[in-house]
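Milestone 3.1: sequence recovery, worked example.
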């Protein structure tokens, strides 16, 4: 459930960023402070999405090895 929330939040963050920037003029987006904010927000959302994907791949790996079934024997 945490992975779905994290990945969905990352995608939603990108949509909100696009919605905030869409009414702005193009020359306004290339100012240094606004461009750095855009890059920080984009990088944050991409990293959160990548983290959720890595957690998902790790859990799939554990499920493929049937690691969870061996825990019940102890």
């Amino acid at each position: 459930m945490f992975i779905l929330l994290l990945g969905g939040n990352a995608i939603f963050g990108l949509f909100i960023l696009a919605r905030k920037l869409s009414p702005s003029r193009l020359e306004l987006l290339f100012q240094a402070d606004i461009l750095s904010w855009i890059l920080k927000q984009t990088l944050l959302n991409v990293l959160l999405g990548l983290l959720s994907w890595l957690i998902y791949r790790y859990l799939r790996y554990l499920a493929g090895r049937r690691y969870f079934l061996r825990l019940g024997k102890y």
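The two ends are 26 Å apart (CA to CA). The chain has a mean pLDDT of 86.
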